[in-house]
């Protein structure tokens, strides 16, 4: 599956998020990347980039202080090659992105709600 088709699947999953959730994650960038870089793998404690399907880069709401500002936006990275490696069909890719495990067993919706609630 090429990058454009994969990106469309991610966008479709984002479009299906409940409107109230979409409004609350406007400051979170959700990006598709090929694989995690070494720094991210070290932070996530993964050896192989093919094992890490996604990663939340940011400061959890519960750790933000009064001087939080002038920082890069929080970001959810979705790793295309890792997900394609884990799936056999386009249907499996779609299910993994929209409903199953991208990051710590959370769906994209679950991950976004966890960010909004300050759980990550």
Summarize this structure briefly.
The protein has 120 residues and is α+β, with helices and mostly antiparallel strands. It contains six helices and three strands; from the N terminus they run H-H-E-H-E-E-H-H-H. It has a single domain (3-116), classed as Zincin-like (2-Layer Sandwich), CATH 3.30.2010.
The CATH topology is given as Zincin-like
Please state how the strands of the largest beta sheet are arranged side by side: 1-3-2
Shape: globular
Determine the fraction of residues in helical runs and give it as a percent range.
Answer: 40-55%
Total domain modules: 1
Rg value = 14 Å
CATH class: Alpha Beta
Write down how many β-strands occur, each being a DSSP E stretch of 2 or more residues: 3
Strand content: 5-15%
- Profile the largest sheet: 3 strands, mixed
Order of helices and strands: HHEHEEHHH
Under the CATH scheme, which architecture would be assigned?
2-Layer Sandwich
- Determine the number of helices (DSSP H or I, runs of at least 4 residues): 6
Structural class: alpha+beta
Low-confidence regions: none
Measure the end-to-end span: 30 Å
Mean pLDDT: 80
């Amino acid at each position: 599956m090429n990058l454009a088709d994969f990106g469309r699947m991610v966008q479709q999953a984002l479009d299906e998020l409940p409107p109230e959730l979409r409004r609350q994650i406007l400051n979170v960038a959700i990006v598709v990347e090929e694989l995690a870089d070494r720094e991210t793998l070290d932070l996530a404690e993964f050896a192989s980039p093919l094992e890490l399907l996604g990663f939340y880069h940011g400061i959890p709401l519960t750790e933000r202080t009064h001087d939080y500002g002038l920082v890069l936006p929080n970001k959810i990275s979705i790793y295309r090659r890792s997900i394609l490696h884990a799936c056999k069909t386009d249907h499996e890719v779609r299910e993994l992105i929209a409903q199953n495990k991208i990051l710590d067993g959370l769906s994209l919706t679950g991950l976004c709600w966890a960010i909004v609630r300050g759980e990550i």
